[in-house]
Specification:
The protein has about 475 residues and is an alpha/beta fold. It has twelve helices and 16 strands. The protein has two domains: about 375 residues, Alkaline Phosphatase, subunit A, CATH 3.40.720.10; about 70 residues, 2-Layer Sandwich (Arylsulfatase, C-terminal domain). The protein is about 25% helix and about 20% strand.
């Protein structure tokens, strides 16, 4: 372990618990582990025959697989904004990637959980506000933070630096760089989360957010993780095409590296479960695992690799696509009295987590959010609400998608002016291969109308369309 890891852990221990929220031992703890660019089919419990994920498979056996759960967007920042604010990209302030921080008026999940008596801590990639902006983590509800502020910091697995919130310092210097050399970033994040859990008591509930930066490119994993996908001679078990590197670092075994990164994320889940059990907190802790969007084809990874590994799990598309391969994500919820070893097929999305957690905590949800609570549905299979889900996306043109019941609608406006409409019945065509837009006019129109009714004019100029002006 590098000096930066040790320094961060020691400093967190010295800080201790800074305040004592009201006793709330009956409220479940919450741990949310978020992978970065993990495909729907990349876990054993979601069908992978290649990638080894024993801890996540066990977590699913001990809980619930949400088989039709969707991310907030098909790329990073808007997906995480939807998670934190419970607003989909038709209403959220951040609707695409860019240098856009959350505003003071944007109320977040940790801020609301703080009010419910939770101690909040985040370890990993934030991406919703850099230092000295209104979206910096210490201003958005985090009692403790170690991680990356800017999303590009999360592009490199051995960055050498991270940021830490140090509230004992003056206001101007509370967000400090931790300098050091060479450690695998996700080790720091998970070690920090483990140390935080070690300091908690059963009397005060806590919320830990652990947004990992794997398997996002660059494709790199520690040697022990790579061993699982090498033969006796140290070569990849796959036929590989080396990646020479550009923005991301080079990798001579990109297929093996991707698999190793997913397995490394699985190791971190095992580490978190282990400390919870040692502390006697496992039964009263809700563990959530998901991904911010679908699998990627970056840093040496190709569409052929996605097909080989079945990373999209039979869904069409990858990251940056509005088909389900870009936005439907493998999601597991476990613990806190939930039933074991079952699946729930009712669809939901990232903006549903916030009201679900608030119902768990016995707190009324805000009125101006898009999410609905799934807590009773997860527990009993009842009270699931069918309502439309909405996404919009701006890279390469303007794209909208709606899921309502079994129907999925996508409208694409390319930069050259071309417009395409797609309509799919996901019950009979999960791979979105049969476009029914021209043969089912009434359903097409109904779904198209939703793209208007579910959207408000963007508040940030980056996302304002000509028709919005």
């Amino acid at each position: 372990m590098s000096k930066v890891f040790v320094a961060a852990t020691v400093l967190l221990a010295l800080l201790g618990i800074q305040s004592t929220p009201k006793s709330a031992s009956s409220k479940p703890n919450i741990i949310f582990i978020l992978a970065d660019d993990l495909g729907y089919g990349d876990l054993g419990c979601f069908g992978s025959k290649i990638i080894k994920t024993p801890h996540l498979d066990q977590l699913a056996a001990d809980g619930i697989r949400l088989t039709q759960f969707y991310s907030g967007s098909t790329v990073c920042a808007p997906s995480r904004c939807a998670l934190m604010t419970s607003k989909h990209t038709g209403h959220a302030y951040i609707r695409g990637n860019g240098e856009i921080p959350l505003r003071p008026t944007d109320v977040t999940m940790p801020q609301l959980l703080q009010k419910a008596g939770y101690r909040t801590a985040m370890f990993g990639k934030w991406g919703l506000g850099d230092i000295n902006t209104t979206g910096s983590p210490e201003l958005k509800g985090w009692d403790e933070f170690v991680g990356f502020l800017h999303h590009v910091e999360g592009h490199y697995q051995l960055p050498g630096i991270a940021w830490q919130y140090q509230p004992q310092l003056t206001q101007q210097t509370q967000m400090q760089r931790i300098r050091g050399g060479g450690g695998f970033a996700c080790d720091l994040f998970t070690d920090s989360a483990t140390e935080f859990i070690q300091r908690q008591s059963a009397q005060t509930p806590f919320f830990v957010y652990l947004p990992l930066i794997i398997p996002h490119a660059e494709l790199y994993a520690p040697a022990e993780a790579m061993k699982r996908y090498r033969d006796a001679n140290g070569n990849s078990i796959f036929e590989e095409t080396p990646w020479e590197g550009s923005h991301y670092g080079s990798q001579r075994m990109p297929k093996a590296a991707y698999c190793a990164m997913v397995s490394k994320a699985d190791d971190y889940v095992g580490q978190i479960v282990k400390i919870l059990k040692e502390k006697g907190l496992y039964e009263n802790t809700l563990i959530v695992f998901s991904s911010d969007n679908g699998t990627h084809i970056e840093g040496g990874r190709t569409k052929a690799d996605v097909t080989l590994m079945n990373s999209s799990g039979g869904l069409r598309g990858v990251k940056r696509d509005m088909t389900d391969g870009g936005i439907r994500v493998p999601t597991i919820v476990s613990g806190a009295g939930l039933p074991k070893n079952i699946s729930r097929e009712g669809y939901g999305a990232f903006w549903d987590f916030l009201p679900t957690f608030l119902e768990m905590a016995g707190v009324e949800k805000p009125q101006d959010i898009d999410g609905v609570s799934h807590w009773q549905y997860w527990k009993t299979g009842q009270n699931w609400q069918q309502r439309p889900l909405y996404w919009e996306f701006y890279e390469g043109g303007y794209f909208q998608a709606v899921r309502h019941g079994d129907w999925k609608y996508i409208k694409s406006k390319m930069k050259n002016g071309t417009v395409k409409e797609e309509l799919y019945n996901l019950k009979s065509d999960v791979g979105e291969s049969q476009n029914l837009a021209s043969s089912n006019e009434s359903q097409r129109k109904q779904m198209a109308d939703l793209t208007t009714s579910l959207r408000s004019k963007p508040e940030h100029s980056l996302f304002v369309l000509p028709e919005d002006k």
